[in-house]
């Protein structure tokens, strides 16, 4: 059956606020460098007031990945919850402006649209403080059957493994996708998410997921080991494809007994690592949807990650389709 979409994603609909800071600011605010912490509306207001002037842009991990898929020329759809407020309208506009389909009904009353306050230090590390707001109101009822069944790959954002209702949405999406002969991909998102839900997350990965994205710290947390190679082998036993990033060392793509080491694309200057993993997943998923080899998928992922870390913001600023062509991909 012909797919309506290359990738459909379920994730947190968030508007990012990105500002520069130094390590002293992180210490003063009690922030753990390089981490993602959940905050309430009061903390969000106080931290926002303390931050330097920054830029605002629609974000959310899976939504950023879809922006990359669309930039490659792929067909994308997003499922996520915003409120019926100004930031919600901004997010909706931005998703549709990149060519993505976004039809999830907004929350009429209750918490506001989510925001992620991102402080970037001179070494390009990003420290994220996230007010989830309307995101946690996503339920299985928001999972559009036609969208999931019509997508080659349904991509699930690991951050949403926290709310129980969203976990039910994942289960529904997996059932619909596999019932239609499609594939389920998931990103582990954060080692803290893995630590909170290791047993349940591993069970979901083993039984419902075909493709798993992770970074080195996340996969080591999943299998409670410091041995990266051993962790990759363990994941490869459980899923069809494992794609694991490791910053400047590139990535490892594993499928069965086959392992591919993918080099990182050179970057003149790393400005902001926000969105690197999201864009790697974008390139990889786009490659899979086009029937490319796993090695090529990894290279497309590395290319997209290299583009996004060379500037502020989590989404590509050039057409990734053109960039891929320029690099023989």
TrEMBL record:
SUPFAM superfamilies: Ribokinase-like
Domain Carbohydrate kinase PfkB: 58-315
Keyword vocabulary terms for this entry: Kinase, Transferase
Keyword Kinase: yes
Tree of life domain: Bacteria
A molecular function GO annotation: kinase activity
Pfam families: PfkB (PF00294)
Entry similarity comment: Belongs to the carbohydrate kinase PfkB family.
Descriptive protein name: Adenosine kinase
Organism expressing this protein natively: Caulobacter zeae
